[in-house]
From TrEMBL:
WD repeat intervals: 105-137, 155-186, 187-228
Entry keyword annotation includes Repeat: yes
Record InterPro entries: WD40/YVTN_repeat-like_dom_sf, WD40_repeat_dom_sf, WD40_rpt, WD_repeat_multifunction
Disordered as annotated region, ranges: 29-49
Swiss-Prot/TrEMBL keywords: Repeat, WD repeat
Pfam family, one: WD40
Protein species of origin: Aureoumbra lagunensis
SUPFAM superfamilies: WD40 repeat-like
Stated name of the protein: Anaphase-promoting complex subunit 4 WD40 domain-containing protein
Length: 422
């Protein structure tokens, strides 16, 4: 997907205006309290002059990688501190205890393609195109170095335990005990690269998607394939799982102008999420995300549209709204865990927080990246001293500098405030 994004943005111009309506005015505070480099530091000589044209609203710029950053994750340490984990084309991971220190995670012989935190914040993992997965204490000490698969495409920790799952370009999926490195299962059956995978939200199942145009459901304890959704109309780009209240519902974005919604227990395709395009339109889906509390899904595409579907009435799903973002591919969309709101990243470097109930302009918009944006994560909360909701966003890409943004809802003004400090 990174290659597709690069092709689509070869001639793109980045707009530096903050696009919000008067009712959702975004205010920016000026203070900086962090101990790492503040966002307005301008001592990076190798950064393009384009940076001067983009309003940098980040609260913190993390220690730069020397190549593109492909993967990011936010976590929380055992003592409640915010953690930021990044991996890039310089063969390094970096673990930042925000406001304190940055630890370089070495040992990979190729690009670090995926990073993840365990459910309790005690462990983190880096996976690389060298076929190596490394497990780290979040203090920075290496716990286990694991080898086995071909290049690692993605990593996922179990939602409740120290078990880690990885998908490989060689068509295999591996399951390990993270602390010991014991291989628990190797899942074999895909005939192409395993591009994506997830634990079901209850932790009792595994689903994987592949370039072979199949989605497979696995039994972790037995290591067997429970069902294969085969002959789908495109390679699988990305998977999404529903909240723990509906663990059997999953969605897949395809290398086609659509996503599909599946029910694992009944082994049925519930509905098609078809993008509203003209007959000669060649756009494809890049991302799908399922709202946790309601029967809504968003599908992003490589032409900069994000389509909101309501699938509560079965097939076909109803289109509620379509947002368009300057022809810039949708990189990622992350729903709020309890509200009908979501944070969306586009490849041109902008990040927007949307209210799915009303559509329209973003509640707030973040900028600062000077090249393709490739990765996003969001940490919701905790609420601040005024009981206002606080969002923390970590993003990174081809400009090599991971950025942390923060925003909170000001109860007194009823506006979102983009914070310039942590």
């Amino acid at each position: 997907m990174t290659e597709n994004i690069a092709q689509n943005l070869a001639e793109m111009e980045v707009d530096d205006d903050l696009l919000v309506d008067d009712d959702n005015e975004v205010l920016v505070e000026d203070e900086f309290d962090g101990e790492l480099a503040p966002a307005d530091d301008d001592d990076d000589d190798d950064v393009s002059d384009e940076e001067d044209e983009i309003r940098d609203l980040s609260a913190l710029k993390l220690t730069a990688h020397t190549d593109s950053v492909y993967a990011v994750a936010l976590g929380q340490s055992l003592d409640g501190r915010l953690l930021a984990l990044t991996g890039g084309g310089d063969d390094l991971g970096r673990l930042t205890h925000v406001g304190n220190s940055c630890i370089e995670l070495t040992g990979h012989g190729d690009s670090v393609s995926s990073v993840a935190f365990s459910h309790d914040g005690a462990l983190c993992a880096t996976g690389g195109y060298d076929g190596v997965v490394q497990i780290w204490e979040t203090t920075g000490s290496l716990t286990k170095r694991i080898e086995g698969p071909g290049d690692v495409e993605w990593l996922r920790f179990h939602p409740r335990g120290d078990v880690i799952l990885a998908g490989s370009g060689d068509g295999t999926v591996w399951l390990w005990q993270a602390r010991t490195g014991e291989c628990l299962r190797v899942f074999v059956g895909h005939e192409g690269a395993v591009s994506c995978g997830e634990f079901t939200s209850d932790g009792n199942g595994i689903v994987t998607g592949s370039a072979d145009a199949t989605v497979r459901s696995w039994a972790p304890k037995k290591g067997t394939c429970k069902h294969t959704f085969a002959n789908l109309p495109g390679a699988i780009i990305q998977l999404a799982v529903k909240s723990i209240t509906e663990p059997d519902i999953i969605a897949a974005a395809l290398d086609a102008p659509k996503a599909l919604l599946f029910h694992l227990k009944s082994k049925q395709i519930i509905t098609n999420l078809d993008l509203p395009i003209a007959q000669d339109d060649t756009r494809i889906a890049t991302f799908v995300a399922l709202a946790p509390a309601i029967s809504w899904a968003v599908v992003g595409d490589d032409a900069g549209a994000l389509t909101l579907f309501d699938y509560s009435h079965g097939d076909p799903a109803t289109i509620r709204h379509v947002w368009t973002f300057q022809d810039s591919p949708i990189v990622q969309a992350i729903w709020h865990p309890s509200q009908p709101r979501l944070t969306v990243a586009t490849a041109d470097g902008f990040i927007r927080h949307l209210d799915a109930r009303v559509g329209g302009d973003p509640l707030y918009e973040l900028s600062g990246h000077t090249d393709l944006l490739l990765a996003l994560d969001v940490h919701w909360g905790p609420h601040d001293y005024a009981q206002s909701e606080v969002h923390t966003v970590l993003s990174a890409g081809d400009d090599r500098i991971p950025r942390i943004f923060r925003a909170r809802f000001d109860q007194s003004t009823q506006h979102w405030v983009v914070l310039s400090s942590l």
